[in-house]
Amino acid sequence: MASIGAGNFWWRKLSFNRIDICHLCRRYHWTSTGPPLGSFLMNRDPWIAMKLSAGLIALIIPLSLALPETLGVLKSSEELCGSTEDIDLLLNAPLTRTHSSDTQKPGLLIRASSLLSYFIANTRFIFHDWRIIFLMSCFIVFQMDIICGELLLQYVSKRWLWTLAKANYVFALRAGVSMVLLLSVIPAVSIWLVKRRGFSTLRKDFLLSRISYTLTSVGLLMVALAPTIPGLLVGIFVSTLGTGAHSLVRSMLTNMVEPNEVGRLFTAASIVSTVGSLIAAPTITGLFNAGLGWGGVWIGLPYMVCAFCNVVITVGMLGLDLHRKEMVVEEGEGHVDGE
C-alpha cells in the first residue's frame, strides 16, 4: 500500500479502488461458499464444522509466516506526510521526564501528544471542506451496514424461528449478488457513463453513490418490515445492490483532495472506520436486544435505524455541490491523457 502511495496520482487512485474492491470480493466470495458449506455440515453434525474450521486455522497460520515482508519504499517522494525526518524524531524521542515549574509529564505522554499534534496538523485540510467531512461520515454508516449484515443470521433465526443451519443459506444470496455487482455491473456501468455519456470520474462516482445509498436504504427497510421470507429475500437483494457505495465514496474523496494529500486522507478514513466499528457494534447489538424484548416487527429495529442513517446520507448526497471539484478533476484527467 505504501509503494502505491509514492506513484502517479491517477494510477494510485485507481490502485486504491482496485484493492478496495478486491477486499470486498474476497469477503463476499468466502461468505458465498462458507455459510452453505457450514450449513450442510451442521445439519449432519455441528462438531464437524467446528473441527474443520480449527484445522484450517492451524494450517493457515504457518503458511502466513512464510509470506515475504513488504518491500521497502525508495525515498523518492515525501509529499504524502511531509518530511520523514520529523516522524523519525517523534518516534525515536527518548522516554525521559520533562520537568517544569508546576507539573511533570512522562516522556511517553509527550511523544503521544507530539504524534497527535503532528497527525492533526497534517489532516487539517479535511476540515476545510464540509463535503469531505460529510463523505468521511459515510464510513461510520458503512460500519453499521456491516454489523447489520453480520446480524442477519440471528435476525432470521429469531424472527422466523429458523435453525442457524437453515438461516445460513441467506448469506449465499447476499454474497453472490455482491460479487456480480462488484465484478461486472459497476465496472460496466462506469465505463458506459464515462465513455458513452461523457461523465467525469467524479460525476460518475457521485451518481452511482446516490443510487447505491438509495437502494441500500430501501432494501434495509424492506428487511426490517418483511412479513415473510420471500419479502426478506427481496429486501436483501435490493440492499445488496448498494454494496459498491463504500468504494465509490473512497473514489470521490480521492478526487476531491490534492495528490499529496491522498495518503493522509486514507489514513484518516481508516481511523474513522475503526471508530465507526467501535460505535456501531454495541449500538446495533443494543437495538437488537431492545427489539427482541418488544417482539414482533420490532425485532428488525437495527435495520430500521440503519435504513434511517442511509436515508440521511442519501439526502446529504442530493445536497452536495461538486461542480468546482469536478472542473479540477476534468482538468487533471485531461492533463494525464495529454501526457
Could you please describe the fold and organization of this structure?
By secondary structure, this protein is mainly α. The chain contains 15 helices and two strands. A two-stranded antiparallel ribbon has the order 1-2. The N terminus and C terminus are likely disordered.
SSE topology sketch:
Layout: H1 2-5, H2 9-44, H3 46-65, H4 84-91, E1 98-99, E2 104-105, H5 107-122, H6 130-150, H7 152-160, H8 164-167, H9 170-196, H10 201-225, H11 229-240, H12 245-255, H13 262-294, H14 301-319, H15 323-338
Antiparallel strand pairs: 1-2
Keywords, separated by commas or semicolons:
339 residues, two-stranded antiparallel ribbon, 15 helices, 77% helix, 1% strand
Q: What is the compact description of this entry?
A:
The chain is 77% helix and 1% strand. It is an all-alpha fold and 339 residues long. The relative contact order is 0.13.
Strand count: 2
- What would the principal axes of the Cα set say about the shape? globular
Strand order of the largest sheet: 1-2
Query: What percent of the residues sit in helical stretches (DSSP H or I)?
Result: over 70%
Radius of gyration: 23 Å
Alpha-beta content class: mainly alpha
The number of helical segments is: 15
Mean pLDDT metric = 76
The biggest sheet amounts to: 2 strands, antiparallel
Hey, roughly how much beta strand do the residues contain? under 5%
Instruction: Give the oligomer, counting copies of the same chain as homo and different chains as hetero.
Output: single chain
Element-by-element helix/strand order: HHHHEEHHHHHHHHHHH
**How many angstroms does the end-to-end distance come to?**
25 Å
Runs in which pLDDT lies below 50 for 5 or more consecutive residues are 1-7, 73-91, 93-105, 327-339
